[in-house]
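Researcher: Go.
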Amino acid sequence: MGAVSGLVACGAALAVAELVSAWVRPQAGPVVAVGGAAVDRTPAAVKDWAIRHFGTNDKLVLQLGILAVLALFALVLGVSAPRYRRAGAAGVLLLGVVGAVAATGRPDSSGPADALPSLAGALVGALVLYVLIGLLRRPANTGATREGSASARDWDRRQFVIAASAAAAASAGAGALGRSLSTARGSSAAASRKSLVLPAPGSPAAPVPKGAQVRVAGVSPFITPNGAFYRVDTALVVPKVDASVWRLRIHGRGVRRPMTVSLDDLLRRELVERDITLTCVSNEVGGPYVGNARWIGVRLADLLAEAGVKAPSRGGTADQLVARSVDGMTIGTPVEDVMDGRDALLAVGMNGQPLPFEHGFPVRMLVPGLYGYVSACKWITDIELTTFDAYDSYWVKRGWARKAPIKTQSRIDTPKPLARPGAGTVMVAGVAWAQHRGIDKVEVRVDDGPWHEATLAAEDTRDTWRQWSFPWQATKGGHTLTVRATDRTGRVQTGRRTRTIPDGAGGRHSVVVTVE
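Model: Structure:
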């Protein structure tokens, strides 16, 4: 019963905290705050391991892990509380302090108010534990008969069950109300997205060439649907930003005319539409964290020029652009790359729709040719011009490289690893990418044999991936298929395997198949 008391008390604490966080802000909840603090302090190797094994479910796994640790702690508190009643209640309060410190220490903290959810939840949880343990410790009537003493103990047990059930039911109600209020709080953001109509681009993208998609089953679609586009970030709660109140500030070193722009300001400018492939630096060789979409937005270089910013090659004093998200994330991008003529965008649309919340609504940044961690700030709200010597962004502080151009890579989509195709002609196909350089050639090797040139699909632009195919005359037995790409600069994809840290994985993708 002590263990049950601990679980009920911690459940009550979490439920009340969720209810209060709906009033303060969802990111201030203890599980989210502690999870965010854990992410911030996770070594890069562990982060990569989590992404590799859990993919986009890494955040769910983290939160479940936190809940599991809390449950274990609750059991320990509950079991010890019948002997140490006050210490048990103090243990629940300690959990609240941990959550409060984590919430107020987050980069996006709004101040002392962020401590309220954890502290309020802890106070309620401590009170629940103290009351339940009091019922367990209630002495039997020593002057009664044996039957009367048993009756008194039964009465105490019934009182405990009633109190514990009432606390659990109230907690469930508080948690449900908190989730409902959090959903309602995000309704204005959802309404602003639903009502947003993207203007026609002044500079539309050319139609995707008819031959850009190879006609081989199993190959990724040339344009990745929004729902299938990879998502890798640190946000345990997806920010819901009301587009009507969103603002972007541009300031810092070399900015002669600081600017603050709204979404309407951006939409009144010339919008450009471009097909751009994005890649995450955590993508292993042959991995899934790469996707291609049609984006619409404003040229970032134009905004910077209006603010008086010059590229370093033209005498500018800032060589780093630090983009800040509403959740406190900082991403550092070379100013030279943003202003060298490539289609660096403040994007407002993705595949013909306003940005999904998961991908940065209302505005995100993207720069072709750079890994996302140095270019693709989602939910952007601030741009500061500075230098690499003066400031290290979020991932640089954690051991990743300051500058990270995307490496030339290729992937075999079909046949899948361990496939068992029949002998004869087997179509080997996949995608290759070297954003802002373009793909010039793709080659396939069977086992340790010679390299054979694959057929390239039509190229959309040098900022998008390119599909390829190769008809393999397969013979029975086990075989290893390997692919390599050559970009337009003549650089051949390296065969040397490297980790994703510090600036992206290197090596060639291979699959092992058995031909029957």
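Model: Confidence is low (pLDDT under 50) at residues 140-152.
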